[in-house]
Amino acid sequence: MQFSERVSIVTGASQGIGKAIARELSREGAEVVLVDVQKEKLEEVARNIKASNGKASVYCADVTSMGKISEVVEAIIQNHQKIDHLVNNAGITRDNLLMRMKEEEWDAVLTVNLKGVFNFSRAVIRNMIQNRYGRIINISSVVGLMGNAGQTNYSASKAGVIGFTKSLAREVASRGITVNAVAPGYIATPMTENLSDSAKKIFVDIIPLKRLGTPEEVAHVVKFLLSDEAAYITGQVINVNGGMFM
Ligand code: NAP
C-alpha cells in the first residue's frame, strides 16, 4: 500500500468527489483526515472507511474561516505528527446570470472555492516545508478553463485556483513540495444531480465520451498525482472531462 505512512487531508469529504478521494486514499493505506461542515455525514464516511480496515479521523470545519482552519491544522499535526497530502476539494455553486447575480452569491462562491484553498494551503505549508515533503492538489473545474454562462462567480473562482496552484508550485518546489490542480468536467455528484434532464442532455451532447464522469474517475487522478510516480509533475492542471474541453 503506497500511502501507508502518509497523512492525507481531504476537504469537502462528506460526499461526492471528496468522499471518493478519501476512500481511494484510505484503500492505499493513508491516514485520511476528513474535513467538512456536516459532522454526521463526515462521521458516516469515517465509519465506512474504518469498516474496510482504513484509518480515518474527522474534523468538522468551514474552510472559509482562517482562524478555525489554523486550529484544525494545529490539532491534526498534534494528533498525527505531520501532514503529507492536502486535497482542497470543498466547493459550492451559486449560479446566476451576471446581470442578476447578488453580491452574496459572488462572495459565497469566491470565499469557499478560492479563499478556502488559500486558508488550508497556508495553514499546512510550514509543516510541509519543515518536512521537505508535501503534495497539494486543488480541485478546479473545466469551467475555470472554458467559462460557462451563468457561472461567472464559479468560473472566476476555479480559474483563480489555477493561478494560485501555479504560483504556489513555483514557491515551494525547492522544498520537495508539488502543487497541482485537477479540473473535472461534469461529474455525477450531489452538486450536479439537481440539473434538469434537458440540461444534462445538453452537456452530454458536448462531451465526446457521451456521459458524465464518476467521482472515482477523478479520485484515481488525484491518487496518481499524490504518488511517488508523479514526483516530477508540478504546477499542472490535469483535465478529467471526457474530452469536453481539450
Ligand atoms: P458536492 O457533492 O457538493 O460536495 C462538496 C462538499 O464540500 C460538500 O460535502 C459540502 O458540504 C462541502 N463544503 C461546501 N462548503 C464548505 C465549506 N465552506 N467548508 C467545508 N466544506 C464545505 O460537490 P462535488 O461535485 O463533489 O464537488 C467537489 C469539488 O469538485 C468542488 O470543488 C467542485 O467545485 C468541483 N467540481 C465538481 C464538478 C462536478 O461536476 N460535480 C465539476 C468540476 C469541479 P455541504 O454539502 O454540507 O455544503
Q: What does it look like?
A:
- The chain is α/β, with parallel strands linked by helices.
- It has one domain: 3-Layer(aba) Sandwich (Rossmann fold).
- The chain has 9 helices and 7 strands; from the N terminus they run βαβαβαβαβααβαααβ.
- β1 (about 5-10), α1 and β2 (about 30-35) form a beta-alpha-beta unit.
- α1 (about 15-25) packs across α9 and α3 (about 65-80) packs parallel to α4.
- The longest helix has 29 residues, at about 105-130.
- The radius of gyration is 17 Å and the shape is globular.
- The relative contact order is 0.14.
- The model has no long low-confidence stretch (mean pLDDT about 95).
- NADP nicotinamide-adenine-dinucleotide phosphate binds next to α1, α4 and α7.
Task: Spell out the key features of this protein.
seven-stranded parallel β-sheet; 246 residues; alpha/beta; single chain; 49% helix; 7 strands; Rossmann fold; binds NADP nicotinamide-adenine-dinucleotide phosphate
